[in-house]
Automatic annotation (TrEMBL):
Keywords: Cytoplasm, Nucleus, Translation regulation
Family label: Belongs to the MIF4GD family.
One GO MF term attached to the UniProt entry: identical protein binding
Pfam families associated with the record: MIF4G
Name of this chain's protein: MIF4G domain-containing protein
Subunit structure: Interacts with EIF4G1, EIF4G2 and SLBP; probably tethered by SLBP to the 3'-end of mRNAs ending with the histone stem-loop, it also interacts with EIF4G1 which is bound to their 5'-end.
Primary gene name: MIF4GD
Amino acid sequence: MGEASREEYKIQSFDAETQQLLKTALKDPGSVDLEKVANVIVDHSLQDRVFSKEAGRMCYTIIQAESKQAGQSIFRRGLLNRLQQEYQTREQLRACSLQGWVCYVTFICNIFDYLRVNNMPMMVLVNPIYDCLFRLAQPDSLNEEEEVDCLVLQLHRVGEQLEKMNGQRMDELFVLIRDGFLLPISLSSLAKLLLLEIIEFRAAGWKTTPAAHKYYYSEVSD
């Protein structure tokens, strides 16, 4: 399946009018309201975790198309402004919707993974992402398997990149993660397994050894 058809597949959950808006933005971004497009993508990402995992590719495609067509970055500015707004109210988001909060963290990490400026990761996202990951490593979050799962998945995805951008904060984050694993708080067996796996994953240079893969994935499947 080609790139375009994969993009089209991801927007089938939208209504017909929004699908048409997104299809046009992907092919002819200059002909649509790109701030509206950014808001549509963020809104849907906060509600749909599957979409939030993949939306970065769509955003990347729109940004590339806009840059090629008009040499502008209206969509990127709109996207970053909206991410900043959600970041500033992240505690309220977590309080009213754990799923929305997890989707937000997934989405901002996805954007960081895909988007580049002069072939470099977007520095403006590094500290906000760290702040989100630090929040996921707090004791109350570690009691929520959904948040532990999100923390570990995002570190698998962008941990190595983040460490290159700010190694000190990654060290501090893993102190929290190790404390969470070792301290006598009521973590589930799955949460403990996930935390131990990510500790060993980083210790191995952000790689999974064959022995670790066999152990952890057999444990999870059991």
